[in-house]
Amino acid sequence: MYKEELTEEGIVKASKDGIAEIIISDSNHCEECSAKIYCKPGNEKFRTLLAKDPFNSESGDKVIVKINGSRILKASIQLYGITLLILLIGIVVGMNLFNSNKELYSTILGITLSGIYLSIFSLTSKKTDYTSYPEIFQVKKPSKSF
């Protein structure tokens, strides 16, 4: 997975300042896709994806987007792995810290610490650092018929 490169085809919904919002049709393989953490559900037939746009594509352009497996792995570790680690550390610390109702209080501590981490992660990942975004690598302009 680390050296894998995933590609997907979609249509540009909007593009501004080097970032494009792309509509991708939802299919059966979406549930098994390791890059689904980048997609946002739209309705039942479409998903949206933010991607770096070095071509300054326009609304309606068909594009092919790629993302490296290393970026997917990094995002998965940040989102799921570290959260799980913090949850477990909170539970272990809570079991040694509290005297009565150890299980309850240590679970609450672990969940609280995980929630704090996810809140901080969410706030800091919304900065304009687009290095982990997928990237458009091919644009197919729609044909104009008169």
Structural features, described:
The chain is 36% helix and 29% strand. The protein contains two helices and six strands. The model has no long low-confidence stretch (mean pLDDT 82).
- Domain count, please report it: 1
Q: Quick check: average pLDDT?
A: 82
* SSE series: EEEEEHHE
Q: How much strand?
A: 25-35%
Give the neighbour order of strands across the main sheet.
Answer: 3-4-2-1-5-6
Distance between the termini: 46 Å
* Total helical elements: 2
Low-confidence stretches are: none
How many DSSP E strands?
A: 6
- Alpha-carbon Rg, integer: 20 Å
Helix content: 25-40%
Multimeric status of the protein? single chain
Shape: elongated
Structural class: alpha+beta
The biggest sheet amounts to: 6 strands, antiparallel
What is the element layout, followed by pairings?
Blueprint: E1 5-16, E2 19-25, E3 39-41, E4 46-52, E5 62-68, H1 69-97, H2 102-125, E6 135-140
Antiparallel strand pairs: 1-2, 1-5, 2-4, 3-4, 5-6
Identify the notable features of this structure and list them briefly.
single chain, 146 residues, alpha+beta, six-stranded antiparallel sheet, 6 strands, elongated
Can you give me a brief rundown of this structure?
With 146 residues, this protein is α+β, with helices and mostly antiparallel strands. Helices cover 36% and strands 29% of the residues. It contains 2 helices and 6 strands, in the order E-E-E-E-E-H-H-E.
